[in-house]
Structure formats: structure tokens, C-alpha cells
Hints:
Elements: E1 8-12, E2 17-22, E3 27-33, E4 39-44, E5 50-55, E6 59-64, E7 70-75, E8 81-87, E9 92-97, E10 101-106, E11 112-117, E12 123-129, E13 134-139, E14 144-148, E15 153-158, E16 165-171, E17 176-181, E18 186-190
Antiparallel strand pairs: 1-2, 2-3, 4-5, 5-6, 6-7, 8-9, 9-10, 10-11, 12-13, 13-14, 14-15, 16-17, 17-18
Amino acid sequence: DFSPDGRSLISGGQDGSIRCWNLQTYACTRVLEAHRNWIWSVLFASDGQRFASCSDDGTIKVWEAETGQLQQEIAVHGHKVMSLKWLGKGDTVAAGYDDGVIRRWEASTGNLVTTLKGHQYGVLALAFNHQDCTLISGAQDGAIRFWDFENESCFAVLTDHNNWVTSITLNCENNLLVTGGADGSVRIWNL
């Protein structure tokens, strides 16, 4: 993921390490031995002061961006964390798990805020619409779900993919949702 100021990049690997890169020199500036297993996602918070990572080892870790110091570790034992998304400018992250559940966490304390159930299998992709506070998820069940945090409920489901939904991106300015799937398709949705 690129830092909000565009000066650095963070990447996560199958070996459980996170690498921090300086985009002016293209040099790796730091390697963090972050997780015990494959890292699925690593993302900067909108302010660029922190980043979060998630892994097959069942943990979400929140890091201080400048120093690489671990600030918080969140664990749900027995489940892999397969996707991650910072929600807005606040202190909340949503995480998709291999059991099909999305859990919303307070990043600074590690407290569970909300649990959203609806997918049958692992949640591989998350997007967040800042305009109306809608979370959008894609999963191994082929479904794309739209979630209302206020009511803690799913209010819409799209099922046009014939296989896993592996990626989601949202363009709020143009009301477009783009999804990619293991069925080899990319779909563009006009919201």
C-alpha cells in the first residue's frame, strides 16, 4: 500500500514479513518480522501515521509508521484474517475472516465493535464508502454484500460472480464499484 503522502510503500509477504520502501530511492528501509504466516493485507491509515496488517496466523497488527513499532495486536484464535480495511479517518478497522464473518475493531484498544454475519465462506475483499458509511464485502461464496453499520445488517447482495470475489474497489465520485473474481471476470457496477 502507498502512504497517503506518496513517499513510501509497505508490502507483506508469504514469509510473514513486512517491508517498508522509500519511493524516492527505491530502497527497502525496514523489514519487520511481523507475522508467523502469510500476510494477506497491509494498509496505511488515512493519516499515514499507522498501518495495519492481517495474516493467516489469525492476527491483525497495528504499527506506528515512522518507527515500525507494534502498537496493537488483535487475535481471533482459530480463524485466518483474509482482508482488512480502515474505515474512514477514525480508529476503526474491518477485517474479513475465513469463517465468512466480518469483525469491526477499534484499532488502538483492540476492542470488538461489531460482528457482521452473512457470507458462507471466507471474506477476501473489503471496500468502504465514506459518503454513506457503507462497507462492501466480497467472499469465497461469490457474493458481494453491502453492510449498514448503524443497523449491523446487510441491505443488498450481488451474486453475478460464479466463483470467489477476490477484489473490490470503489469510486465514490462516479458511483462505480469494480469487482474481480476467480471466475476470470471483472465487473463494473453503477451504484
